[in-house]
Structure formats: C-alpha cells, structure tokens
Amino acid sequence: MTADEGPAIRVDAIHHRYGKTNALDGVSLSIARGMTAAFIGPDGVGKSTLLGLIAGVKRIQSGTVTALGGNMALRSHRDMVSPRIAYMPQGLGRNLYPTLSVVENIDFFGRLYGQRESERRRRIARLLAATGLDPFPDRPAGKLSGGMKQKLGLCCALIHDPDLLILDEPTTGVDPLSRRQFWDLIGRIRLERPGLTVLVATAYMEEAERFDNIVAMDEGRVIAAGDTAQILAQTKASTLEEAYIALQRPERRGDRTQLAIPELQPSDGPPAIAADNLTMRFGDFTAVDHVSFRIQRGEIFGFLGSNGCGKTTTMKMLTGLLPASEGRAELLGKPVDARDITTRMRIGYMSQSFSLYEEISVRANLELHGRLFRTPAGELEARVASALARFDLDAVANALPTELPLGIRQRLQLAAACLHQPEILILDEPTSGVDPAARDRFWRLLVEMSRRDGVTIFISTHFMNEAERCDRVSLMHAGRVLSIGSPEELRLARGADNLENAFVAYLEEASAQSVAPKDLPASSAGVKPTDASGLSGSETRSLSDLPYRSAAAPLRRIWAFARREAVELLRDRVRLAFALLGPLLLLATFGYGISFDIENLRYAVIDRDQSLESRLFLEQFSHSRYFVEQSPLRDEFEIDNRLRSGELRFAVDIPPGFGRDLLQDRQPQVSFWLDGGSTFPAETARAYIQGAVLTYAAERHLQLQGQDPQMLPVNVEPRFRYNQDFRSVFAITPGSIMLLLVVFPAMLTALAVVREKEMGSITNVYASPATVSEYLIGKQLPYVATGFISFVSLVVMAAAVLGVVPKGSVLALSIAALGYVFAATAFGLLVSAFVSTQVAAIFATAILTAMTAAHYSGFLFPASTLEGPARLMGLSFPALWFQTVSLGVFAKGLEANAFIPEIAVLLGFGILFLLLARLSVRKQGV
Amino acid sequence: MRYWVRNVFHLGVKELASLARDVVMAVLIVYVFTVAVYSEATAMKTDVSNAGVAVVDADHSALSSRIKDALQPPYFRAPREIDRSELDALLDKGLYTFVLDIPPRFEADLLANRGPSIQINVDATAVAQAAVGTAYIQQIIARETANFLHQHGASQAVPIEPVIRALFNQNLEAIRFSASMGIINNVTILAVILAGAAVMRERERGTIEHLLVMPVLPNEILAAKIWANGLIVLLAAGLSLHLVVQFALQVPIVGSVEFFLAGAAVYLFAVTSLGILLATIANSMPQFALLAIPVFIVMFLLSGSFTPFESMPVLLQDIMYASPSTHFVRFAQSVLYRGAGIDLVWKDLAAMAALGAAFVAVALSRFRTMLARQS
C-alpha cells in the first residue's frame, strides 16, 4: 500500500471545543512511522483530546487528522485502520472489565478482532508471560493492583498487533517497579516491531526522556515539537524536567529556586499520628499486617509502596473509615473513633480516586466543604477565593469537575482537603497525574504548612523526587512495612545511588520472597520476533485475509460482546438472582393478591321503623356473603361521618312507616348512601344492592302468592367464558407475565449500556472495529436469553403453583414471548441511548414500561375499552400485543395460527426499537 | 444541633443542585406528573364504562329491541347485532366483553308465561368489568321485562323503591378516583428511585466516604437526602394536583389539598427512607434497580390504589400494612375523596411516620458495614 509510505500521523490545524472551552487551538504536527513520541504539558492543555482524535474515538470538529495513511474524519478509513490502532485511555484499568479475569479480558479483545481460538490462546500465553501476569490468569481485573491493571490494559491493546499504539498517561499512579517493567515491555515490543509507532502522554519527565520525539503543549497549542536531543539543546537544559519548566509561560513556572526544606524542629507531646500493630483483614486476605509507626507534629511522612500493598487501607483505618481488625491507631493523642466529630475537624483527607461531586462546580464543591467544616459565613468567601488562587483553580472555578482533566481534579481535591486549615493532612497519592510544575508548587505549599503552621502531613506517592522531600518515608509491600527512615538512610541501607533504585531493590527482594514473577525475558536486541517474549505475530498480512474483514467477522464480534456480557452477568450472582427470582415472587404475589372479587362490603343501618318488615328486608343484607354489617347508625349525622372515615362502603336508611307502607303496597322508599370516593367498590355495591332488592322482592312474592314469582319472568343465565369459576387468578396471571417480561428485561438491558457509559469502558467500542449495531445486539443477546429463561420459569410457576395452565398453543406463546423479550430488551437499548445517568435510566425504564404495561395494555381493564391517546399508547407498545397472546393461550385456549399477526408485530417492535437505538448512538465521543 | 441543621441544609442544597444538572431526569419528572397523570386518569376504567356488548337476537320482537336499546352509554357501547356463528370468534378476539343471546320466540314465551331464558356470555378474563357488568345487564333485563309486562297489564312489580345515592362523588365518575391515584403511584416510584439512587451513586463514586471523614454524621447525610429528594417530589405532586387534576382535568377535590400535601410530606419521609434502605442493601446500581422494581410494583398494585384493598386475602392485607403506601392510599382517599380531617386519619399518619423512622434506623445501622463491604 502506497499510503503506508507517509508519516504515521499528520495533524493539520486541529481545533476542538467543549462548550465554551477551547481544548485545542490550531494544532499541527507530524510523526514518522516507527517513532515514539511523548506528549508533555500541564494538565488540561489538550493532550488527551489530541490523542483521542488521533485514535478516532473522538469526533473531529475542525482540521484534519491523517493516521496510517488516511483521513480519520472518514468513517471508511476509520473502519479500515481501527484494527491497526490500539488506544488505552487515561485512568487505571479504565478499559478493563473488573469482574472478568485476566485471561477473559484479553480473550474478549482477541475475539473483537476476529482471532480464532487457537490463535488467541497462543497470543494470550505469550502476552501473559511477557508481562509477568502469567501467575494470575484467573484473577478478576478489579482485584489487580494498579500496575498490574496497566500491564493487563497493555496486553489487551497489543493482542491484535497494532501499528499505532496510543497510551494516555499509562503509568500515572503506578509504582516505580511496575513502571520500570512497563517501559521495558514497551521497549521490547518496539524491538520486535520496528514499524510500531507509539504515542504517549505522560507526567513523568524521566519517562518522556526515553522517547525519540517530544511534543510539548500548552493552552491547546504545541509549543515545542521535535527530537528530544534538539529540545534539550534548544532550552539549554540538562534534563527534560528543566527543559519542560523552561518552556512554560513564566507565570506557570512558579518559583524556580530549589525548594529548601527547613529542618524539622522536634516537638514534644504526643505524636500526631500513631499506629500500633494495625491490621486489616478482608475475609482470609490480610491487606494490612501489623503496621506500626509514630509521626510527630509537623512531620512530612512519606508512604511508599507497590500498588495494592495496603497504603490506602492503612489511611482509611487512620481516618476511621474502616474499623481495624486488630491493633490501634491514635490521632492527636486520641484513639481513632468514627463517631468523634471534633477530631475530624482537625484532619484533612484526600482519597486516591476523585471523591468530590462531579455534578456541581469547582467553586460549589469548595463552598460545600467550607460549610461542612463550619467555616464562619463571613470567612467562607475569602477562604474559597484564596484556595482557588493558591491551587490555580480560578480559571475553572465555575466548571464542572467532569469536564476537567485528571490533574486539575486532583488539585481541586487538594484544595478541598486544605480548606479548613487542618492540623493533619492525610493525602492518598495527591499528585498522581498532576503536571511537574503544579506538583512543585504543591510541595512548596506542603512544606510551608508543615514548617510554618506545624501541620502533620501523611502522604503516599509514587514520585521519588517527592519522597526525597519527606522527613521520613516508610516502604510498604504486601501489607507489611519493609523499612522506615529518612530517604537518605534508606538509600544508604541498600547502597543505591538514588532512592528509586533503593526502592526497587527493596521491592524486588520482597516480591522474590512472596510471589516470584517469572523472569522477564531478556530485552537484548538479539531476541527473535516470534519466540522469546513473542509479543507480536508479525507475519505479513494482506488486507483481504485479515480476520476482522471476513464476512463472518460481524457475527464473531457480536458473539464477543454477547459472551462478555453473559460472563459478567453470571459473575454478578446477586443481579442474576434478582433478575430471575424477582418476577417469580411478584407473579406469586399478584396471582394470590390482586382480586376484583369484591366481598365483605362494610355497611351499617339506621332503621327508623324497627318493624318486623324492616328486619326481614335487612336480613337480605346481613345474610349475604357480599356484605358485612357494622354497628348500627344512631343518626343521620353519623352516616356522613362513618362514610367519610372510610369505615363504611354504604349505609342503609329505612324510613319510619316502612313496614306499614310495604303492607299497604305503597312502595316505600329505602335510601342507600354510597361512599362515592372509591368508585369501583361503589359501583359494585350499587349492583349488589339492586340485586339484593330484587331477590328480596322475589322471595316476598313467593311467600305471599305461594307460587313462582312473576316478578322475574325471565331466567338470565350468565355464562362466564374462559374462567368458569370466575377466579381473578386466571385473569391476572397472563397479564402479570406480560408486565414482568417487559419491566425486568428492559431494565437489565438499559442499565448494562448506561453503566458502560458512566464507567468509561464504552471507549473500547469506539476504538475497536466493531460497529454500534454489533455492540448493541451483542449487549442485548444475553438479556434476551435471561428474559426467555424468566418466561419459562414464570409459565412453570403459573401452572404448578397457581394452577393456571396454558390451554392453547404453548409453542405460539413461547415464540411470542421470545419476540416480546426481544422487543423489551431493544426498548431498553433505546432508553439507554437517550439517558446518560443510571438514575435516569432506572426511572425512565420503570415508568415507561411498568405504567404502559399496567394501564394501557389490557392488564386489568380490557384494552378494547380504551379510547383516544390511551388506545394509541397501548397500540404503540409491545405489551398490549403480547397480552393478547398471553390471554389467548392461557385463558381462551386458542391455537397458534390465531397469533401470527401479534407475533409479527412484536418482532417489528424489536427491530424498530433497535434501529432507533442504532440511529441515536454515535460511535465516537465528543 | 445547630451544626446538624446547617449540615443537613447544605448537603440538601447540594443534592438539589446536582439533580438540576440531569436534564433528562427533569424532563421525565415533568412528564410523569403531567402527561402521564392526564392520560392515566382518562384511561383507567375501574368502573363499567364503554364495555363492548353484542347481541344475538333470534327473536326480533318488541321486547328484544327494548332490551337492546336499554344497553346504553356510558356503561355500554351501543350493542352490535351479530350472528350466533360469530359468537365464539368475537369473544376469542376480545372485541366484546358481553354477548347476549336472545332465543327465538322469547317474547311469545314470556307472554305465555313459559319463563324463557336469556344467556349472557361474559368474557370473564375482564375481571374488573365482568361481575359488575353482568349484574347491570341482569337488572336491565329484569327492569325492561317488568315494564314490558306492566304495559301488557301485568301487576306492578317491585314492592319497595331503592333510592341509591353516592356521597362525595354523585355520579361515581372514575376519573375522580384515578386522577389522584395516578399521582400517588408516581410519587412512590419517583421517591424510592430518587433517594435510593442518590445514595447508591455516592457510594459508587466514593463521595459518601469522603463525607464521612468530614465532620458530618451518617444521619445528616440521610436527612439531607430525605428532605431534598422529598421536597422535589412533593413540589411535583402539588403542582400536578393543582394544574393537571384540578385545572386541566377539572376534577373537583372534596377535601383540603394542603392537608393532603402535609400528609404526603410524611409519606415522602417514609418512602425516601425506604429507597435509602434499599440502597444500603444493594451493592451496585443495577442491583439496586432490580431490588427496587418488586418493591415499587408491589406498592403500586397492592396498596388499594389499583384494586380494592379489602378484596385481597387477609394475610396479604396484614403484610401490606407494613408498607407506608397502604396507609398513604387510605389517607389520600379519605382526605381527597371524602374530605376527612385529622381526627379520622391520624392513625395512618402515625403509621407512616413510624415506618419511616424504622427504615431510617435500619439504614443507619447498615451504613458503616455497607462502606466496609464496598472496599
């Protein structure tokens, strides 16, 4: 292909806006094939946006992006090259599926790219061996440490031998050892695949130094781009970190003097933080194992360790968020107590993941913090203003945290933690993802707080230059503290030339004792491409025989999505149980509980006649099973009162002279007062009263004349069809099945998609060769299956427990149910296309399905009585159509051919909803 | 105490601000309290109205015509005359709920005192209408034959004259019932989901943990969720009652709307607490949704807003007394339909408040363990 001759990437005059914010403002650059480029720059200058545009996961607004020889604005080109591009978004494990195991995650990506089983198995084995993940093939991704997550993410990205690898801050929040291993891995891949172009955004300058090219960005523009050596020469800097700061606008550079940390003055009194044999167990896993330390007031105490070694858990125990399984902790001389509000006033905490409110502005978040920390109203404004200034958040004060890059969000969290001027700061990786200049400024603040105000700072970090600034550091691994001392002491103890090497040496030694990762294959240049590390299967390929272009490929991708969704559903036992048992429970309740057979209507009598005749007449009521007599009414006033209270459904008022008038054939009047508030019981009562009067008349006639009553000269014979015993359960059950089979499947499906949107794994779809239709159908299939299983269980339960046996064609019912569940899940997909939060998805699905099914679909009231808009609503939703089949088969015993139109309509609904969903979902983010 | 009030207030304001951001949610809330209430109110047919009737008339006499003519709106649609051969098929299709079968020589047999029979074929799957409708038709036939015989010189029939009047709703218009019950059902669903999901979201995002290292107590977090989400639902319900029910549907309300809303506030305390309790039981948003579905479906079908409460089995009635919705439906019916005052409904109010307090207590006791499970 001739197109393969040009540069790998060419970007021309790209502009990109998010609302009013200008993310990219005329970016142009070009990167040659086989090169590596590091994108550096402060947070929020558009690095991620640029990488997203190059990867094709974001829509281009203006300008052109040419990647691998074609225009990325063209869908045809994106479809063609997407299998050759691998993209790893920002954030630890963002593109992984937490409940899936290591192997299952990689396997899913392999399937997405159409690889066959044997090929996948071979590739997975090689990738796992190369990344040292092979001891844990079955561990769920969510339980991996940060470094392992990133390695797994890389495996997933590399499964299809990409020609362009795009990594957005892959090592942020990863410990030094894992980081080192990660880059060794990339280095080996490049040796084997010289044509591979690698683009990386990073906050670590010492990492960026290893790259061929540097792209320095600021304010949506490229401020310097080129050869790394060139840039160093240009800025007359010896390290990239210096060069980077030199490239900054002066106001961003901050204080360029070396940060001098004054000696810590020893203080007496109790230590600020003391931990004594702190231990935390989760089940049989010990996360923190007898950790002890003492930190004096004003000390900056660094907490270092590999990912997942128990740092966060220790911090949570110190804050009282987690009760310790064993041991004790003291803050400011008092034992940690979750209920102690006064101690909390003196502590500032920042969690590792963003834990402020995404849906209110930066300023509102700070104000809320200030208020909750009881800042006097007069001071609040000034404090928020100074925090905004101090942490350089003025420009984004009114933005929502969702719209901000990681680094700025971290700054916001820091600002919040410091706002109330705490005496102790507990900071869990506060500088992960923050750019160097901002980190430097932040450390100046910390030092100032520590030395001037005597604030004790307990901080965990993966940056060694930060660790070097701590008074003391503690090295942790696998829940244990390996060593505590000043940075210098630790370095000397290992005889290393810097702290990072000392740290790595400690970790390597400790890991060797626990789980020894397999020796990494040597990264020498002599490695043959196909064996040893074997990260690529670089056979020559022509486009036509690529697996993702074959005719069966769409089916394989649908299967890949369906399979993954099914495995995730099976893993979430609670969700599965709710999804299958919920409908059964409800069916039983409805079948047993919903009844229109009104009996026991409560009534009371005011008998102003008290004659034999009146008593005989009233027996008509007191002897009926439809009525229950309550204590008699004393006066007219009571009629109103007792009806009003809801005690009575009706009252009978017999006038004085009733008996006399009756005997004289003067047709006396009897008043009945109904409670008209609840109309259905009132209607029923009216009908029953009239019936009772007629019966009374007939009996009286019989008594007087001694013959068959002429009164009722006609026999009226009601024949209750389909339900001879007139039991509600026969009528309610088919409708209940109709209701349940739309609510549950639609809810499950809608949430499955919206959840991926909220969690971010939907980016995998944007970056993969899969189409939106394939994704949607793949997502839908497991829920169609779940829905159908639910249908079978409901029918079995109806027959076995409720005694409602389908009399007609079970085959027709099953086919219709399949069509119905298909339509219901497609409806769920449609809902998910319009809502962006899970809350909205739940509510929308609940009201749209449950209300329509209950009101407009012939569940309790025959659909034929509906008129106008209500009728239309019924007709335009699948529930009504399935109800016809369900009722027809269960109650009326009809045969299959009666339902052909309904089944066709149900399928039509499914296809229509699916098409609408397909049209409403775009494959690319903004 | 002062701090308690302040924290609860500020956290609640935050809740309102974040809800205001979710445009789709806002649109949905407006939809359910306007369009949905309106169309449900006009669609729900708990009474016999508009029922489809057909007649197989093999007699074609004056009497049979008389009976046909007596089947009239609003209870019945004008009956269609059909052939006996069509009878089964039409019932199978569900086009008619009642089919009268008048035999040949019906009138002649009656006059000859041979006691002829009329058959009513009832589609008994239409449970709500079948029984009452059959009773109506029986009465219509009895009345018409009596009048017919009277004209032909037979004796006057009924010895007494029942005068049946309805209080509070003279014409027994179903819309008066269904309009406000629609609002009540929406209140239940919305309150459970809003409050529960608000807690669930904070759990999933980790923000609730963050609050707990600040000088904020779990009960303050719950109280804030309850008032903020409750207030939104209360406002929506109040507006809906005034604008949709009273203004658009022109449905008169017997009792005091303000008193109803005060009771609704008590109810909202109970249901939002229930939503929060569910959120402390589930571990993820999908689990919460699946847990909430049975809860609100049961509350909305079995509390007496759909079918008469007293026609449920006694055991189920007893169980449903543990649901605040049962008390609220009873309260609402008493106040809105019958104009009851506090003297008649205080027990239901007290029950709702007690249930709400119990839900809050359980939710609070689960709060810390729930966070520990999360990590």
Automatic annotation (TrEMBL), chain A:
SMART domains: AAA. The lineage of its organism: Bacteria, Pseudomonadati, Pseudomonadota, Alphaproteobacteria, Hyphomicrobiales. It is a multi-pass membrane protein. Coiled coil: none annotated. Residues 517-542 are annotated as: Disordered. The chain crosses the membrane at residues 576-594, 729-754, 783-805, 812-835, 841-860, 872-891, 903-921. SUPFAM superfamilies: P-loop containing nucleoside triphosphate hydrolases. The gene is rbbA. It comes from Mesorhizobium qingshengii. This is Ribosome-associated ATPase/putative transporter RbbA. Keywords: ATP-binding, Membrane, Nucleotide-binding, Transmembrane, Transmembrane helix. Belongs to the ABC transporter superfamily. It is found in: Membrane. It comes from the Bacteria.
From TrEMBL, chain B:
Keywords: Cell membrane, Membrane, Transmembrane, Transmembrane helix, Transport. Residues 134-370 form the ABC transmembrane type-2 domain. Signal peptide: none annotated. Pfam families: ABC2_membrane_3. It is found in: Cell membrane. It is a multi-pass membrane protein. It comes from the Bacteria. The chain crosses the membrane at residues 20-39, 177-200, 221-247, 259-281, 288-306, 349-367. Belongs to the ABC-2 integral membrane protein family. This is ABC transporter permease.
